[in-house]
Amino acid sequence: MPARGFYVTTPIYYISGTPHIGHAYSSVAVDIIARTARAHGPARSLTGTDEHGQKVAQAAEAAGATPQAYVDALAPRWRELQIAYDTRFDDFIRTTEPRHARASLALFERMRANGDVYESVYEGWYCTNDETFWPESKLIDGRCPNPECRRPVEWLSERNWFFRLSAYRDRLLELFRTDPDFLRPQSRYNEMMAVLEGGLDDLSISRSSFDWGIPLPGGGVLYVWFDALINYISALGWPDDPDGRFATFWPGVHVIGKEIARFHTLIWPAMLWSAGLEPPARVFAHGWILAEGEKMSKSLGNVIEPFALAERFGADAVRYFLFREAPFGTDFSISREKLRQRLNSDLGNDLGNLLRRSLAMLDRYRDGLVPEPTAGSIAEGVSDLPARVRDHVLAMRLREGLDEIWNLVTTLNRSIDERKPWELAKAGRGDELDAVLYDLCEGLRWLSILLFPYMPSKATEMWRQLGLSGTPEVRWPDELTWGRLAAGTQTDPGLPLFPRLEPEPDETEA
Ligand code: ME8
Question: pTM here?
Fold first, then answer.
């Protein structure tokens, strides 16, 4: 852990889009990382909505609303997504807030004062859907080159402000070369290195043919991507920094989807340097969630609706699935059937049954009271587990973190099978029986603490059934020492953690 505060962010989502499972994925990833970081020291997480730009202006017009009324009506949907997936952010920023406009203009002015901003005419193509300027050479069949978009582009001729991005190429190359972890995974790093080696053009950072954006003195509005990137520091209170948040938490870590790596790792660091600020500490550009091997899209009819998914399987089971199914960083497919299978096997059989069997044996042999710890426990084998989980999670190895935690699940299940408490009870070997039962309860206490970032509500339910007060949101270094569970704790078994789910008609493999 860095000595200073730890700060992690999601992209801010286009407010006019429909929330889907990919948005939930980024938000849950950041939530897992932030909850793990909070267990060790000061940490902050941020999400929000990207509300300016031509696309929003056009959509508002089509809906017969003012842009402000239009975005205000859409904002609650994005907060609902956070509630549905139990993601707890320290802040939610909307780019239409005054604090954001202030910071955006301040950054623009600093860059201009440093001689990096000049006026010129942008003559070229623009994709409104992606809010991206495209040079003619990049278009494919005259359309947007983004494989997810491929929409017609429009010709712009506007007198705009430009950022001297080209001047930062060498400094970016140096950043990439001296800090290979600046952008992960490796495939994204390689892609961006190739872009850098090909050279960078200056970037238009304002628009003058419509007015839905942050107004600039003298006319025009800021280009929506320029304003969007600044959310990461406007939410920290930059430039005034009245609460010292910027000083404590910047530079932060950005978690994004792979398609927006260029904005975050080439343009954003250069903007910050130009204003005399530090670039982000790290950027992690994860892969895409696919449905049956294809990117989800309305036209393919394969969109997995995030609200219905959380309702059917429970937020915690979906959170678990998203980060157990594939290494964080790669593309992977999701299906309701796969999710149901993992819920029944990993969560129901491995974890849920472990809790149920352990507490049932404790009830039968010790009236539900945690026995006195004795020698001969599994403690030695697990002492460095918390540090390993923490290191994996803070390095974005979210699946590896879960794999480590699952080793403890397996160890505890195995210890029941091998040490056979029912035989120890029959043979009157009380000390050995106490040792197994204590190990199981203490192991389950550890599991609820370690799993809390991934599955906050089920981990809290485990904690409650173990008869513990408060919640498993505790400081790991203090609480994850084997033997802290007090003898005499009265456990309180409840309903199964993950009741078995039978398939619905659309969940059966063809
Ligand atoms: O790009 N799989 O917003 P956006 C995985 N406003 N992640 C996905 C995904 C999928 N199928 N689909 C979306 C924008 N995401 C800009 C960002 S940031 C300063 C401005 C996630 O609403 C992923 O994180 O299009 C992706 O980068 C983001 O949602 C795009 O959200």
Answer: 0.96
> How far apart are alpha carbons 497 and 443 in whole angstroms?
16
Per-residue confidence (pLDDT) for residue 376, from 0 to 100 = 63
CA pair distance 33, 209, nearest whole angstrom: 41
What CATH class is the domain 335-479? Answer: mainly alpha
* pLDDT over 90 percentage in the chain: 89
Q: What DSSP state is assigned to residue 259?
A: G
User: pLDDT tens-digit profile of 60-104?
Assistant: 999 999 999 999 999 999 999 999 999 999 999 999 999 999 999
Closest by Cα among 470, 457, 468 to 491: 468
* Residue to mutate, 225, 256, 265, 325, ligand 1, most ligand atoms under 8 Å from C-beta: 256
Phi and psi torsions of 191, nearest 5°: -60, -45
Low-confidence spans in the chain with pLDDT less than 70: 1-3, 295, 297-299, 375-376, 508-510
> What residue spans define the domains of the chain?
6-286, 335-479
- For residue 298, the model assigns a pLDDT of 65
| Distance, CA of 105 to CA of 102 (rounded, Å) | 5
Which atom of ligand 1 is nearest to 229's Cα?
19
Alpha carbon distance 42, 1 (integer Å) = 10
Q: Which residues pair with 44 in a beta bridge?
A: 7
Sequence-distant (6+) residues with CB within 8 A of 58 are 128
Cβ of 296 closer than 6 Å to ligand 1, yes or no, is yes
Q: Is 50 in the pocket of ligand 1 (CB under 6 A)?
A: yes
Three-class secondary structure of residue 349 per DSSP: helix
Nearest CA, atom 15, ligand 1: 22
The pLDDT value recorded for residue 2 is 42
Question: Domain 6-286: which topology?
Answer: Rossmann fold (3.40.50)
Scanning the structure block, which residue is given the tokens 């280009």?
223
What strands lie across the sheet with 289-291, from one edge to the other? Answer: 294-295, 289-291, 332-334
Give the per-residue pLDDT at 510: 39
pLDDT at 301: 72
pLDDT value, residue 148: 80
pLDDT value of residue 303: 77
Residue 430 near ligand 1, beta carbon < 6 Å: no
Query: DSSP string of 27-88?
Result: HHHHHHHHHHHHTTS-EEEEEEEE--SHHHHHHHHHTTS-HHHHHHHHHHHHHHHHHHTT--
Cα–Cα distance for residue pair 351/363, rounded to 1 Å: 18
Q: Is the CB of 11 under 6 A from ligand 1?
A: yes
Output the furthest CA–CA distance in the chain (Å, rounded): 89
Record the tokens describing residue 197, joined without a space.
Answer: 């080696």
pLDDT the model gives residue 508 = 62
